[in-house]
Amino acid sequence: MRKSWQAAGWLAVGLALALAAGGCMTVREELQPVRETTLTTARSGDQITISWIGRKGMYYTVLYADSMSARSKWRALPDAVNIPGLVTGEPIVVHDRVRAGQQRVYRLLQDNRPLKP
Hints:
Blueprint: H1 2-22, E1 40-44, E2 47-53, E3 59-65, E4 75-76, E5 83-84, E6 91-97, E7 105-111
Antiparallel strand pairs: 1-2, 2-6, 3-4, 3-5, 3-7
């Protein structure tokens, strides 16, 4: 038993020395989707209706961009930040106004904690 503690101690010392010598350590974290959600949009003139099925305990934020280009800047839709899901299975609906003929794309962020400003 004593040898295993000594081995663990040397391993800890080795890691500490490696971190001190290198200055940093890379940790890989994979993000898994909370759950699949379908975002539905409908347009009537300059009014866009965005909806999805909510889940109790979740917080939702709608992001938008004016194109799907890799350089597009995603912004939070002003009235659609940290919308709480109050009931599982009920639709959540938000609206946006966009000039006729203008394109806009949307993305939905969901988490079990509110988004920090």
